[in-house]
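Why G-protein coupled receptors family 3 profile domain-containing protein? Reviewers of the renewal asked for a concrete example.
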Amino acid sequence: MLRCVFLAFHFFSKYVCEPSEFNLPGDYKLGGIFPVHTASEIIIPNSPMALQCYNQPFTMSGYQMFEVMRFSVEQINNSTTILPNVTLGYAIFDFCLYNQNFPSILDFISDNGHINVSEKENKHNVIGLVGPYGSTEALAIAPLFMMDLIPMISYASSSYDLSNKWVYPSFLRTVPTNQDIIMVIINLIQHFGWNWVAFISSDDSYSQNGLELFRSTIKDTSICLAFFYEITLNSNYTEILKRIDSLSINVIIVFTLEDTARAFVETAVRINIRDKVWIAGDAWSMDAELSTWPGIGQVGTIFGVTATTLNLPGFDEYVYQTRLRLETDYCLNCEDTVKCNQLCDNCMNEKPEDIIKESPTYSFSIQAAVYTFAYALHQVLNCSMAGCARDQDIPPYVVLQNMRQTSFILQNQYVKFNQYGDPPASLAVVLWKPEENPLFVVVAAYNTHPTINFTLNDDLVPWAENGTVPYSNCSVECETGFKRVQTSIHKCCFQCEKCKAQTYINTTDDAYTCAPCAEGYWSDEKSIICKKRIIVFLDLKDPLCMLFLVCAVAFIAISIGLIILFGINYNTPVVKSAGGNMCFLMLFCLVLANIGVFFYFGVPDPVNCALRNVFFIFFYTICLSCMGVRSFQIVCVFKMAAQFPDVYHWWMKNNGQWLCINVYSFIQLIACGIWLLTGRPKPYNDSTSFKDQTILTCDMGSMVTSTLAWSCLWFLSIVCFCFSYMGKDLPKSYNEAKSITFSLLLFYLGWIAYFTAYIVFRGAYIQLFNAVAQLSSSYGIIFSFYMPRAYIIIFQPKKNTQAYFQSSIQTYTQTISRM
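Here is what the prediction returned.
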């Protein structure tokens, strides 16, 4: 039904005179549509009739593109390798208004003016279409070609919507897409460090697609779209420009069609907008008329994004030759000739120089489109040096399939289509230089083949001399080591806050977050990297550690020596007064108590953390129990036996001293067991004491259970001290007050020094202080309790007799009786 409606329009347009310049017979015809004339607004006729383009304003750039297609077809027909014995023809139409030029489109998809809607495969006047110029035109006419998969290659339509192969399966193009153009704009903005920009679009598919792509792409960048507006020819440009100026936006992207952009920028000149940076989309980036507008240089710096411009070798000569042989007369009555196509008085009056000097922006893309059809036909017709298989009816989809697979080199440029029908991008950034020659200077290039690459020559930009890049940022960039704290809906509007110690900021990944350093690393405030921490622990190679180990081994050796000495003199009064069997238990416990000091060295693990203090607490408790019981027993003998004979008798009969030692040792064993089972010390990496070090140490485990175990030990030491004080006036041979007091003072001083250091200082040597406290406590007992007795045994054997001890007791008894 849709085809029937458009076919009716086609019959209305049948009576239009057609100069032969628009038509070339051939074995296979290409369709072409170019804006030789341009209608600026929709024309509403008084009666049904086709739009007469020749009455509209003539466009030299459109006519030049028209001539490029004719030139490309002639090149192919003159080639002996592409289509050796096949002639390529064309039917070109002047496409001046996209929504009122459907007769030309219907001519392409029909077969001599007829469309048989009942046939599955219709014949068409052309095998494919070169064109149209703009994205809006392409989106309007493409559905008619998509129905039969007729290939159409646009030489200037860049809207990314056309890459949707579900909707436009037979559409291809030889120009970069809007996505590529937007990427160039973003690269340009990022190169100069701008992030506060305005985007001006217009009410057409091309501009709207550009705005959509720009907004979606900048989400992953630091660029903020501070202002955007969709303008028309009737918009209040003055108010829009004043609004942009009030927001302190100095970079303005104008992604509109040429007429709209021209009116907008001319308004900026008129109202004296100055010193802005303008970025032009490809639609007006090479506008020669606007670039020479009076006062255009005052608005600031204008960059334009355009397809890489290539001059076609031989094109100038072709234009001169065609001008010479072109017939100046045209038909006055359509029935007199069938060779004509459309009226174009200006086409025949233009000078070759005017055509040649027009910007060749799309010349290469038109030539590439024509050559794509030619190379596809080369494959379909199985062409070789001998010729091609002629007289074949080729379905459009067959040509399309070969076009998608075609790749070739043309003027050192790689032509190929991806799965979306898009070519590799080759774009340039031009700088406008009004009142200079040339008007446009290429300052940057963007290519996607073989890899994506953007390069810009800073020496060519206008601020290269003084080095001051125009400022267009919402906030001043933070100093190194500071993070951004967003202050508005725009991510580039922020305050700066320094990163704290143990954090760093990587502005490449995230400029808004100070990330914590990984375990084993550290940083100062305002850092951009974390440094590896130095691992510190008590190493056996450390001189202090080695000295301590020597002392620990010496202690064990001394203890073993004392055990041997006392064993040899077991039956002597000195050994018996020291407790007999009990003194051997004490020595044995002292040795075991100091086994734990060897677990302080090396990298801590759960086992040595658990055993460091437990050995000392338990076995030192047994040792103090023996000393306390021994002191109590001596006091009982000399002071309490006469007063409490029954108690003394029970004590001696039931071995009260051993009973007390066992009971208290059992209580301490339970306390230590609870500590190990419910909250034992564990390895701990101390990263807080020093910023650049990780100290491998052990924690104290459960505070409650560890305090319980330590409290039992300290309580026993106090009891022991009290009993020794009670026996301060006993016989000299039995008086242990001084030795016990001295050993307990060393015990108290050693542990008070350790706990003070633990609270005040930090470092690996705190663990060594703990071990020193343990060892000094044991040395205190050895030197105060055992060494005096060992001295008597070795150097004063006369005092190690029963008679000497009896005389000491008698002296004590006489002294007491006199009191």
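Confidence is low (pLDDT under 50) at residues 1-19, 327-341. This is the kind of structural detail the renewal will allow us to pursue systematically.
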